[in-house]
Amino acid sequence: MKKSITKKIVAAVVGTMLFGALAATTAMADGQKVIKISYGLVKESGEGTGAAKFEELIEEKLGDKFDVQCYSDAQLGDDLKSTQAVAMGELECVITSCSPLTGMCSELLVFDLPFLFPNFDAADAVLEGDVCSGIAEKLEGNGLHVLGWMENGYRCLTNSKKDVHVPEDVAGLKIRTMENEMHLALWKELGAVPTPMAFSEVFTALEQGAIDGQENPISTIYLNKFYEPNEFVTVTNHIYSPKLFLISAQLYNSLTDEEKAIFDEAGLEASKVARETTRQQCTDYITNIRDEGATVTELTDEEHQAWVDATAAVKDQYMDTIGADLVKAVEDVCAQY
Ligand code: TK8
């Protein structure tokens, strides 16, 4: 009895190994290279929609060669971890916030400046202009090729304690920030208690009361249900936050010129779709969040100005680190919109 069970197990194991080997041979025979895309938000998010678009475009044009697979919700790791894996050539692609990457590219800190981008047209002009080509070149040296610029959106504050209108209201609130020194400095300056944390830990930390609040665009606040543990949502729009769509430079450089062009084109198209989706969501979901019973506070002009004034010092503080020329280049583009 024992023997036959053992035999069966051996047979099953050998069978699986053979099948595995066969499957591997088939994949190789097909010559398909798997391209995994790691991202932290849900499938319905802008980046999820963008990743799916990229998959569709690549498989339409190069389906015999590449199998694109999208992994949402930080399944393959949070922004920084995934980006490091892509830089090392251990993972193919990532869609990430810029803020956790400022350690490898300090120029990205320019996007952490509060109240810099007046509107989406200005953001598009910067994302598609020289400033971002320069940043892309720098990232190439870190093993990261930029396929496109997607979008987080304008960041807004949520918390479980009070209806926040003006900066003074955040005094003493424990607020999760991205892992970024300027975000930390900003919330400290406002009198809050900032706690840097990877994105995938935020919901549980809010639910358990380890933190009182967090800040993210309306799209994320709704799709990740942050309004459940945090019934107060304030449309502060304090920082415009883009996202990078990156591919391992090692992998990119191994592509033929024709493939490179198709990847770049698909990256741009996917990024456009991602930005359009996020923008629509940030508008639409204010109503959805209210319908769920949360309080959504939109600021008066006076309250908005109070936030601009209260965060100005951080900008001055970081001017040298970012580079006054870079900040001016962004401001000059923004001034046209
Ligand atoms: C998701 C993050 C998220 C960001 C954050 O991976 O960490 O708060 O806004 O969108 O990139």
Short summary:
With 337 residues, the chain is of the alpha/beta class. It has one domain (30-334): D-Maltodextrin-Binding Protein, domain 2 (3-Layer(aba) Sandwich), CATH 3.40.190.170. Helix content is 50%, strand content 18%.
Characterize the structure shown.
It is built from twelve helices and eleven strands. It has 337 residues and is an alpha/beta fold. The protein has one domain: D-Maltodextrin-Binding Protein, domain 2 (3-Layer(aba) Sandwich), CATH 3.40.190.170. A six-stranded mixed beta sheet has the order 7-6-8-5-9-11, sandwiched between helices. Strands 2-1-3-10-4 form a five-stranded mixed beta sheet, with helices on both faces. α2 packs antiparallel against α10, α4 packs across α12 and α6 crosses α11. The protein is globular. The structure holds D-xylonic acid. D-xylonic acid binds next to β3. The site of D-xylonic acid (TK8) has 11 residues, from β3.
Series of H and E elements: HEHEHEHHEEEHEHEHEEHHEHH
Radius of gyration: 22 Å
Under CATH at level 1, the class stands as: Alpha Beta
Strand content range:
15-25%
For the largest sheet, list the strands in their spatial order.
Answer: 7-6-8-5-9-11
Write down how many β-strands occur, each being a DSSP E stretch of 2 or more residues.
Answer: 11
Domains (count): 1
Helical amount among residues, as a percent range? 40-55%
How far apart the termini lie comes to 80 Å
Sketch the major β-sheet: 6 strands, mixed
Overall SS class: alpha/beta
